Each structure stands twice: as structure tokens, then as C-alpha cells.
């Protein structure tokens, strides 16, 4: 089965609020143009299109239909959509190329998180009969998870603050980051609690944004860029939604996805951790040691556009391989309350 | 290199206006349990789950697959959620097939559903779209001008719509899972029913249903090992075009024609009308039967209604269309496309019961969505593809 490579990545600025519609079109048009410019490809070169977005985030049914206006989808295109982070759209596109039906694919994700009250919107991802009526918001659920880790001794508030400090410092080199800065762990720990035990720095910002990745079959990829990031493996798993039925201080689905891949000798890992303690869980689940550079983009704590932040992690990891900054990179995406669903991809420089 | 894949088993619910006796999970499991029993597989045989449904606002749950993971048997496995408007059941089937065709998995469970009684579909569909003039007349009001345009362009007699409706409703009475059961409905009764959106009358519209459909799709070895007949997937295709642009042909959309062209080419079919034995086509309003017959290339443009009028799309005709009763008898929106795919599969598996088309060897499943802009097709056969 032929391998598939990432040949292009572009993302919009991560911002607190865009003036555009929830269709994503205003964010997607310049981002698509940038991805095409970087690869020298155009719309007619793309064999398959796949996107990820959410109607609930947009506050409207069939919101993704308007997004195809950003492509200029005529003549008609071979296209699909997942109601998930676009990292899973990339998975669908990766599968499509591996069937041999197409040899290129463009994946995009977009989300206008600012359109509603995000933490309240996300509470509608829980069981509609027994949990959602209690309106447990996404930050409170994550706070319960963080508390369990603190009380079991798996991490400390200082460990969490160190993740935030490193992420914000790294984000200073990311021109598209929403948050960045040089902050001390001690100062962070002096900040008030937002949702005990979480402080503001522990929580990813509310972000509007979009991102685009172009994939190509390995034999086609070298014609497009000099150093494609070949996907050596990509796996995803889901955990039970029942928060009381699993150990929230672990991520079994990430562990299973990682176990199905070769995650040794990783130089860089871009982890989709919308909360500081979740990075600690993910590093443990994937066995990433201190020698692995974690989320040099600043990660989700520097900007977390819903439904494209996971895809952006794959893009950021691939970008470092394509630029020659890394030989082997890992990327991770998450979805659902308390890291319920997770995807892991490993890429290496295409020889 | 594409691997062969086959439908190993299918299952569906008894479709009804309101299934308030079950939760969403319960509804899905009725279809899933039947599909797994039909395929003679257990949970350990399933490598991945692909779920599809139309907008989350129809049930009022954001990404319900997250809450459904346990009920779907997906916990610890890969779970994908597809959403491509009304064609989603078709697209979901195709994504599930591609997981096997790519060599990634051996057996995939796929399921699609809608449980409209959980929320209010009219509310879900009436939220304004930026920069678009609201139609405010529901799907029937949206599509009625397309139908009028078709009648004007083709010169079709007005009775054709009623003929489709009467045929599909009578077919549905042969299908124990169909929502509407009208074994003795006549063309005259359809013509006498209330006019809703001229020229579409009440009896020419689909119902609003709660329901689910599931399939197990397996690799070549699984298909070979099956005790009973399987449906080999010969070709699939999907196409999308934007909702509105200058010069768009909404009666005979380019996206549908392109999808059909690819399907016939990839399946090695040169004359669809003589080579295909049965068609399950997404017909939510009666007139879409002749419209899609033309769009799919079964007839020349402007000729589709003649096939319907001559009775050749009825059971026993040259090309039985919607022998299951189709969308006009059951419309659990997110599942409707997968029902078309699975009913096509049942025909070539020889499992269509009282609406079995005699010696059906090749059948097409078709779904469309949005404003006639999303198309998903597959062709299945009793024999392995070349």
C-alpha cells in the first residue's frame, strides 16, 4: 500500500474573534490561496477534498455547505465532510489516496468559536439524557480531570504552570499565535483560579481560525516539494463517554493509537492539549521523553481554533519535517470532553 | 491498489414518525444488531465504526457519536462521523467501503440515523444563512420550482408524478420496515390529495421518520467466506457543487452527471439501462424519479418521464426503481441515503423479500443532498468486480 505525504500546510491567524461569518469562507479563502501558492498547485490538481467543522459551533444546520464557496466548487469536486476536527478529515483523505482512486487531496478545517459561549456549547457533546441536562461545561469537566490528577499525585499545579510557561514562550516565534509571552511559573501560580484547580493559563483561549493541508501520494509528493513529510502511520481511537467509567488521569485511546504506531525516535511532537494537564497525560500515554521537543508552535494553549486545531498540529509537525528541522515528528489531535477521542500520526522526511 | 470490498449484511429499524419508546442509542442498536446478525459477525470481528447523520440540530446533540461510542461498540476502536447533508447516508457507506478498499481494515460497521422526534427539524432548518435570501417554505418549497422547470423543459404529462408516488407507496407495502404502508393507493387518489407546493401534492412527498440503517462491509476474504450472498462493491462516486451560482442547472446538476459518469466508467458499464437490474434512487418528491433517471444517464435528457409513464420503473419492469418503497415511504433523513445503498445491496444479495427483483445481479444506490448539490453513488453486484 503506497504511503501518503503532507506537501503543504497553511493556517489563518488564531484570533479571539473574526468579523466574518460562521461559514468560514472569509478565513478559508486566503488560507487556501496560501496553501496553493506554497505547493504550486491549483484547484484542478486536487483529486479529493475533505473538511471538518461543526454545525453547533456555527449555530446553524448544514453550515459546511456554504464553506465550499471558498473553493469555488465548480466544476463539481469529489468531496466529503466530517463533523469532527479536520484531523479526522485528513484521515479520511489519507484513506482515499490509499485506495488508489486519487493521488492528491486537500483537507481543511474551520471554526468560529467566538460565535457562541464555547464552554456551554461543548456541554451539548455529553449524553443528552443523563448528563447534558446538568449543563456540565467543558472547562468544569477538564477541571475535574485536573483535580483527579493532582489528588492522585500524577502531576502538580507547578507541572501544569510549566507547560503553560513553555508554550507561551515558544509561541513568541509563531506569528499566528493568539497568546504568547515570557512568563515565570511563579507568577502564573500567583494568578487566581478560574475553575478550581485550573487557572487562566491552564485553559486554551477561545479562538477563531482555519487551516489547510495538502496531501499527495508518495510518488507524486516529491514533484511538489523537495522534502515531503511522509505519513508512516496514523491511528485514532475513542474512549467511553461515561466520565465515571474511565480513569480520567489516563488516555486509553491515545495509548492504543500510539501502541499501533512506531513512536520511537521522535524529534518533535505537536500535541493537541487544550488544557495544561492534558499535555502531561498525552506525553505519558505516548511515552514521549524529555528529549522530545513538545509543541514548538505553542500548541493549543497559544491558539485553539475549534475543528482545525487538531489539523494544525499535523500541519505544524509536518512543516518542521519539510523544513528540515526534524526527521521524525508526531502529531496528535483530540475531540470530545476530557480527551475522549484521539488521533496520532507519525511523519518522517520522505527519502 | 484498491482492495475488493463487499456488503456482508444489512439491517434497519421499522421506520416511524416518532420512536419515543427508545433512546438514540436504542434506535441505532436495532439496526446494528440486525446488520451484524445478517452478516453473522460479532463485536470482535468489527475493526472500525463509521457513523453518519444529517445536522446535529435535528436531535439537539452536538456530535452525538461521542455519547454513542459505547452503544456503537466503538470504544477502543476507530470511530468516524460523516456529515454531507442529505446525501450523508450514501457518503457514509462510501467512506466505510474505502476503509476496507484501502486495506486499512477487514470489517467495518457503518450506521446512519435520524431521530427527528428528539428535537424540531423545522427549527433546525430555519436558522438564516448569511448572505442568502431565506426561502421559508421548507424543502418542498425549495424544490417545487425545480420540478416545475423540469415539467416545462421535458413536456412531461402531469400524471407522471402521481404515478411515481402510487408505485413507490405500493412497493413500500411489500417492505415490512417501511414507514408508510399503502398497498391500495391509486394514481387518482394521489392526484386528489392536497396541493402543497404546486405541482407537488401531499401524497407525492416523503414522510418525516425516525429510523436507522446499518451495514457490515468486509474485505474479499470475508466476502468469500460468507455463507450467504454478499453484495460486491463495484464502484463508488461522490460529487459536490455550490448551492448557487450564475448559470447553475438545478434540474439536471452537473455534480450528479459527473458522479454518474465516473460510476459507470469505474464499474465498466456502457449502457446503464440494460446493464443495471434495480435502482434505489433518492426520491423525496415524486418528480425526482424522472429527473434523476436523466441525471444518472439511464435515459437521455427530457426522456426520463417516458420510462416512468410506460411502467418500466415498477417491479417487473425493465428497471425497477425503489422497489423498497424508497424515500417516499420512509425518510429518516440521515439514514435515507444508506437505506438506498443497503436496499441496492439486498437486491443483489437476494434478500429483498417480497420486493425482490427477479435475478438482480447489479444494482445502483443513489443519494443526494443540500440544494441538489451533493451526490453519492455506488454500484453493487452479485459477482466480484473485474
From TrEMBL, chain A:
Its recorded name reads: Thiolase domain-containing protein
Alphabetical list of SUPFAM superfamilies matching this protein: Thiolase-like (SSF53901)
CDD domains from the entry? SCP-x_thiolase
Domain of life according to the entry:
Bacteria
Question: Per its UniProt record, what InterPro entries does this chain match?
Answer: Thiolase, Thiolase-like
Automatic annotation (TrEMBL), chain B:
Q: Which Gene3D superfamilies match?
A: 3.40.47.10
InterPro entries referenced in this protein's UniProt entry, alphabetically: Gcp-like_dom, Thiolase, Thiolase-like, Thiolase_C_2
Every Gcp-like domain range = 28-119
Thiolase C-terminal domain mapped to chain residues: 248-371
As given in the record, the signal peptide range reads none
Q: Which NCBIfam families match?
A: PRK08313.1 (NF006180)
This one is known as Thiolase domain-containing protein
Its source organism is Haloechinothrix salitolerans
